[in-house]
Design goal:
Length: 328
């Protein structure tokens, strides 16, 4: 993340921080430079980290020092039930833990993905659109934790951006808040991939209406803080009860509002071993492209923890959630 700039967030007052917390944006995001999570944490320490996550939405831990995938999964379990991939694409590396999602630019042979690899390139482009992990699932994703194994050389790109959707909601005109307060967005994994690579043969003849859809409130409450947020991700295809084009227009308008530069922070990855955790029920994120693509290895691994808040299942059937697809 960029250098510390501004005032600490008010609600951090009164908490006895065992480590320095550096805010990285006027309204959200922080880093904890001295925190090493490879060591066992007390319940109090973990609760403190979780409290920061709820308050700031994004927490960078540059010296996380997790030694391996297993410790990454174990730390993630402290937040709740960790998602498992049900299906490993033959175009991805075979990583040993089903809980670890491969967010690298490496193919099944551990080689750098090249432009001709359409499936992988489409997924990479899909991740560069604003989204919340797992919004296309009937049960949402709560925490994501991304860990840098091997970063490309500095200055070759690969930053991760975050958008503060709680503040973006708060700043909307009252009239707009009233207009959207009870709306439901319909999310589709396919939709994100189609807009990422619209001309691809992969999507010819496919319609989002023939594939799984998930219904989530457009303005869910972030339960730990009680603050509403704008759940407008690039998986959101339309709005229930509105004509398709009208819903798309509203989604676009809200997305543009929520991702204005004033609501965005750009995280610059510093060193291998760094980890960033974020709350998908409070912020959006996206990968950014860069000169490293097709040239340098970028090995990133991620876990996702399922949401257990009252908004977790949106308006979906909880039974369907048992068969939900992988997170992305
Ligand atoms: Fe993501």
């Amino acid at each position: 993340m960029s250098t510390a700039t501004t005032t600490a967030i008010e609600s951090s007052k009164g908490i006895d921080f065992p480590y320095e917390v550096v805010p990285v944006h006027p309204k959200f995001g922080c880093r904890i430079p001295d925190l090493d999570i490879s060591k066992p944490l007390s319940e109090q320490e973990f609760n403190w980290i979780r409290g920061l996550l709820h308050q700031y939405g994004v927490v960078a831990i540059p010296n996380a020092n997790l030694p391996d995938d297993e410790s990454h999964v174990n730390f993630s379990r402290l937040f709740g039930e960790v998602e498992k991939s049900r299906f490993r694409s033959p175009h991805m590396r075979s990583l040993p833990f089903a809980e670890i999602f491969d967010i690298s630019n490496l193919d099944e042979n551990d080689e750098i993905v090249m432009p001709g690899n359409e499936k992988r390139i489409t997924a990479i482009r899909g991740n560069s659109l604003w989204h919340a992990d797992g919004s296309f699932n009937p049960r949402r994703t709560y925490v994501s934790m991304l860990r840098a194994i091997e970063l490309p050389p500095k200055g070759t790109g690969g930053e991760t951006e975050f958008a503060d959707t709680r503040q973006a909601y708060e700043d909307l005109p009252e009239e707009k808040k009233l207009q959207i307060k009870d709306l439901v967005a319909v999310h589709s994994f396919l939709h994100n991939r189609q807009i990422a690579n619209p001309d691809s043969e992969l999507f010819k003849g496919r319609s989002v209406f023939d594939e799984p859809l998930a219904r989530h409130k457009l303005v869910p409450i972030h339960e730990p803080t009680g603050r509403p947020m704008l759940y407008v991700t690039s998986y959101a295809h339309h709005i229930e009860g509105l004509a398709i084009e009208e819903g798309k227009k509203l989604l676009k308008e809200l997305m543009e509002h929520a991702t204005q530069p004033k609501y965005v922070l750009r995280h610059q990855w510093q060193n291998n071993g760094e980890a960033v955790i974020w709350d998908n029920t409070a912020v959006l994120h996206r990968a950014t492209p860069g000169g490293y693509e097709g040239k340098y290895r970028r090995d990133m691994r991620r876990t996702c923890v399922m949401d257990s808040s009252t908004e977790a299942y949106g308006l979906n059937n909880q039974e369907e959630a048992k068969n939900q697809r992988n997170s992305s």
